[in-house]
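Internal tracking record. Fields below are filled automatically when a chain is submitted to the structure queue. Please do not edit lines marked as system-generated. If the sequence contains nonstandard residues, flag them in the REMARKS field before resubmitting.
Queue: standard
Priority: normal
Entity type: single polypeptide chain
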Amino acid sequence: MTTRRFTDDLSPEPENPLDNMPSVAASPGPQSQPARRTPRGSARSAHMPRTLAQVISEADERVVQGDLVDYVPLPTGFDPLDGFIGGGLRKTELVLLGGAQGIGKTIATLQIARNIAMRPDQYAFYLSYEHTETHLMHRLLCLESINPPSVDLSQGIKLRDLYQIIVAQRAKKFMGRDGATGSLQAILRDHPRTEAALARMSRYADRLILLKASPAVTNLRAIKEMVARLAQATNGNVTVFVDYLQKIAVHPERPRDENDKVTIIVEGLKDIALSLDVPVFSIVAADREGLRAKRIHLFHLRGSSALDYEADIAIIMNNKYQILAKDHVAFNPYTAKQYRNWVVFTIEKNRAGRAFQDMEFQIYGQHFAFDPRGQKVQQQLIDDKVLES
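SYSTEM-GENERATED OUTPUT FOLLOWS
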């Protein structure tokens, strides 16, 4: 019997860009390459001086060919977040997402990657230093079971449910019962609680690229090489997600301390965004002072000065219940409990528009999903910011 890959039973999708990516370590010279226009995001065109006339000519050529990616952002799928950041993620920009441990940073980031990969012309590259590719796949199945933004909880499955379904079906197969299936795909496809989730995941399975990164091996150079190959294979239509920034290996550089290390990493991620012409979205951990604070801000993130300088957009997540102004006249401790499952996203830096915008989204932690239909926060929060005039 021939063993097939996980994607074999999924709906037909565009060819996986990983299958034909050229090797970066052994890139052929100009003589051996076919004559064609250098793809957007190619590492070979990075840092090369060009006259303004050349820039205008190249931009004109792309517009004539219908390539409008420089002018059309990639929506994250979270509203009103997209409206506040100019419509979504843009090429060459570095977006940082910070917050306390367990607030839902990975949930939000993986959901945004999924939303982008659902577009037939876009790819998402998700590097995780925290979770394996299989675990991320399991999270996505739980997310798809409630189908954001529909959020149908009646059909939702939790991670525990998913594991029980798989183990139970495998046990039936082992015992030789009729109708029992053995492969993971068959189990998910045939079970009524996972069938729809698998079908939804199949719509983007060939465009969401996952990597279990190593804190010891996956350094900035390795990330840049992989992104360069993906950018070339997808004609620049790839968004990079890093979970999380402080875990990226730094060698052969020898940083003096943690702040120096973060500075090297964030400058490297910004270079990847600029030189390869792709959006980069990275999770950032808070420092010890931030973990003790009632409300986390951008300056609480480890290596905050470099993060603040290099980031184009910085979003900070806080639990709404924890940051409600308890002494406010309208505060009601009984009704406030409902806000424990709401997360406030605050835009603390925004080169494309106004900063210090607070919006809230409901989180369904057991299904690893947010309801992306959010709203501006109406209640008073602690640590109100002073806006610049």
